[in-house]
Amino acid sequence: MSPSDKVSTLPRKNNDDSDGEESKEQEHKCFCIRRYGRTPLKLLAIVATVYICILSSERYFAYWVQTTIERTDVHVSEIPFPAITICPLKMTGLNLTSLTYETTTYESGFESPSPKDIERYPIYKNIIFGNILGFVNYTCKDLFIECQWRRQPVDCCSIFSYMSTVEGTCLAFNSVVAMNPNPTWPWSVAGSGSNSGLNVKLNRMLKTKKVESIGAIVHESDQYLGTSVIYSSEDRIVIPVEPLRFTAETDVRARPVQMRRCYFTSELGLIGKSRSRCILDCHVDYIYKMCNCSTAISWHGEYEVNDIKERQICGRKDLACVQKYRVSLFSLSNIIEESNDNVFSTMDCGCFPNCDHIQYHTSTYTEKLSTMEKTSDYIELDIYFQEETLFSYRSMLRFTLLDLTVSFGGIAGLIMGISVLGGLNAFLDRFTCCRYSRMPLKVFALAITVYIWVLSSERFFAYWVETCIECTDAHVSDISFPSVTICPSKALNVNAIADQPLAMAYNMAQEVLWQTPTRFSDEDFENANEYGNFKLSDIITLFNYTCKDLFIECQWRHQKVDCCSIFKLLGPADGSCYAFNSIRSVNPDPTWPWSVADSGSYSGLNVKLNRHLRDMTVTGVGQIILHEPNQFLGNNVIYSSDYRIVVPVKPVRFTADVDIKVRPVSMRRCFFTSELGIIGQSRSECLSNCHLNYLARICNCTVDMPVPAKAELEEDFLAQTRGNYRRCGVQDLKCIYHNRRSLFAITNIIEESSDNVFTTFDCECFPNCDHVQYRTSSYTERWNTVKNNDSYIELDVYFQEETLFSYRSVLYFTSIDLLVSYGGIAGLIMGCSALGGLNRFLDNFSCCRHQKK
Question: Which keywords does this Swiss-Prot/TrEMBL entry list (predicted)?
């Protein structure tokens, strides 16, 4: 070995030490750079986390309440029928009393009294309102002639109670705040359409006074002021009611009343007065402020004299002032207009409803009674639900505390990678005594996590379907025009037929089977029993007519067309019904269903029907069914005998996400198209079977359906029941009439009430998840006297608006939302993840463990 090699092998201790020190110094410098270089990054992450958490908190504290559509198919039997308060108003011989009513009620229906009208009564200058109204003294028996409830005649004075402490002022039906209310109120109904609710005839002559007009207040059963106050002097007043139900989740109770704008029932007890009392106090106080007097109109003890004993009571001399400010004492109006000199301003009374309440919206119209009746002797009032189903809305917290927790967890885990448990561990690490005693803390954190997971799971399994507004401007050209089925009723001229009892039996069969508003007595059915052996199908098909006999002229989309090319026979009986645009009819047009791209009169279907069919005279188009083209039962069955029948249609479209298919039909309450093939029947067929089975069970006979139906449906049904039941005949019309089941309307609920015990039966026949509802509000018009209106009846069916609402059913809380919720909660509290859990599990196995060299 050479000396140089020896030298090279000698240790170089000093150099190695200096290199190590330099390396350590370099590492220290890098560590400082890394440590202090990350501080701004951490600060930025903290700021970002806090900022996003604040934004998330704003969603909780500001955007907190959302009103969603809970259900679109709530049946009217699930809500109370509205309370009806009837007050005779204008009377001859009591001008001052009528003037007082007109001044204090204030509605746009009547002409306002002029100052000259008010100054006409100086002799009554010091008489106060209460004494003026006291002049109108009548009893229940004086006012009512006849009453009908749910198509059954009832004693008027057993269903009406006095509503005011001033005897004879108003009488109320179905009101739990009336004087001595019926203990079984509020009552409900299970149907819709004329005469299905309350029908009363009011006497125009009250002793020496004549009633010129009446006021009808439609309101909730536990209120005495109404959302709708109707005034009319016509012979027949028709009030279709469209209810809306509102509910609220208990969670919204955490918000102040001024934000949720409603009271829960338990809170109303603390307030000590109803919404009606609150609004009445507000209106009375406003009149006192403006006129320096107080009205003494009272409602069943709710407004005592002690409440106004220190105020001057309004009298005749104050009528002009009260009329000037026009504040209604009978309407449930929260807003008072204070406009002055064309400057619009309002005052809010701040009286909020119950969080669970029903609004009854009305659209009033009048009809002319038959000239055979003495219309000057009475006023007829008909109040009913316009549709059998209604929308139910639900107020809920849009962003709950649970959502806020999940949001915090997701933000903190995503940006900072921190958790509550991790923060507590880091804090306890500073204390030696606490370093090894964390098991209770971990167990507690795990329990909290599991508890919140359970709450989150409840949202998934309970609040699963939400109906939202998909579109507010869908065009009518996007949907099909409704199918229109026309079936003449009372098509027989009794005087032209030698066998008049047979003609009467024919007309009665038509009226009973179609459930027209016509009333029959037991004597009427006994007279028809002469033909008791005749089957209903034989009676109805006894008098046939063709398409050319029925139609005079047809117009489709503003263009004249051949009627028999667009109307097809619908039903097993020749000449029973003719349908337009129905793919269920006999030999339908292959291009059906058709659509329109316009709205307004004559933009859709317009037809003229011949009143004279050979030996028959069509006295009315008793049945006009509007339905979906792929159904034969309709949401609306219209009856009328007037010369021009106008049917504006308001369609509503419903669709559904495929996600809701995972839920059972009983929860989503609809079928997808693919499921209908498995069921083997449409909704119309399901409902027809349900109603026919019910009638067979009650009346012990089967009804041959004079209805638009699949031939195989009737054959299958009759084949199943022929062995147990006979075919219904004329002698069974009485039973069918008293157990009125609609064979032509899409009604899912059958009323089974007995002895005033209201019960219902649900057929559970659900619609297609993608379907269209055609809602109507038909009315009649009188022809110009120059026209020959005895020869035909005109029918005009059209879309009322060019756009419609489209609703979509979606899962309110999907499985993805549930997983996100689980991840956010686990990340916030436990600081764990699925990957971390798997790694910890695999670490228990040596083969899967990472081996260090």
Answer: Ion channel, Ion transport, Membrane, Sodium, Sodium channel, Sodium transport, Transmembrane, Transmembrane helix, Transport
- Neighbour tally for 527: CB within 10 Å: 14
Q: How many CA atoms lie within 13 A of 156 on its CB side?
A: 18
Q: Which residues of the chain have pLDDT under 50?
A: 1, 4, 6-8, 10, 93-112, 116-118, 121, 123-129, 131-134, 165-168, 300-306, 370-374, 493-496, 572-575, 706-714, 722, 785-786, 852-853
- What pLDDT score was predicted for residue 615? 60
Determine if the pTM surpasses 0.85.
no
* Long-range contacts, 694-698 (Cβ 8 Å, 24+): 694/739, 694/741, 694/750, 694/761, 695/728, 695/736, 695/739, 695/741, 696/721, 696/724, 696/725, 698/735, 698/739
pLDDT at 848: 61
H/E element holding 524?
A: helix 522-528
CA pseudo-torsion sign 73, 77, 82, 86: positive
Q: Give the C-alpha separation, 212 to 202, whole Å.
A: 11
User: What was the pLDDT predicted at 194?
Assistant: 82
Phi first, then psi: give them for residue 662, nearest 5 degrees: -75, -15
Q: For residues 53 and 57, what is the distance between their CA atoms, to the nearest angstrom?
A: 6
* Bridge partner list, 336: 347
Type of residue at 92: T
pLDDT digits (tens, 9 = 90+) for 338-347: 877 778 888 8
- Report the pLDDT value the prediction gives residue 139, as an integer from 0 to 100: 81
The answer to whether the CB of 744 falls within 8 A of the CB of 637 is yes
- The DSSP letter of residue 484 is E
Side by side, the strands of the sheet bearing 205-206 are 91-92, 209-211, 205-206
Q: How far is CA 158 from CA 141, 180, 196, in A?
A: 11, 11, 19
Alpha-carbon distance 310 to 781, whole Å?
54
Pair of tokens at residue 762? 């649900």
Name all contacts of 420-423 with Cβ < 8 Å and 24+ positions apart.
420/445, 420/828, 420/829, 420/831, 421/445, 421/829, 421/830, 421/831, 422/831
Q: Is the link from the previous residue into 706 a cis peptide, with omega within 30 of 0?
A: no
- Compute the distance between CA of residue 18 and CA of residue 21 in angstroms, rounded to an integer: 5
CA–CA distance, 732 with 536 (Å, rounded to integer): 9
* Type of residue found at 271: I
DSSP string, 305-350: GGGGTTSPBPBGGGHHHHHHH---SSB---EEE--BTTB--EEE--
Confidence (pLDDT) at 354? 93
CB 287 within 8 A of CB 293: yes
Question: To which residue do tokens 């106060």 refer?
Answer: 128
- Determine contact, residues 643/794, Cβ cutoff 8 Å: yes
pLDDT the model gives residue 532 = 57
Reference 103, options 316, 277, 336; nearest CA is 316
How is residue 850 annotated by DSSP?
P
CB 387 within 8 A of CB 192: yes
Cα separation values, 253 from 241, 318, 355, 395, 466, Å: 30, 44, 10, 10, 21
DSSP 516: -
- DSSP secondary structure letter of residue 370: P
Distance CA 309, CA 287 (A): 16
Report pLDDT digits (tens) over 662-687.
Answer: 888 888 889 998 888 777 788 888 88
Q: What is the largest CA-CA distance in the chain?
A: 152
Q: Give residue 678's pLDDT.
A: 75
As a whole number of angstroms, the distance between CA 161 and CA 167 comes to: 11
Question: Is residue 278 helix, strand or coil?
Answer: helix
Q: DSSP string spanning 767-813?
A: -BSSEEEEEE--EEEPPPTTS-TTSEEEEEEEESSSEEEEEEEEESS
- As a three-state string, the secondary structure of 27-61 is HHHHHHHHHHHHHHHHHHHHHHHHHHHHHHHHHHH
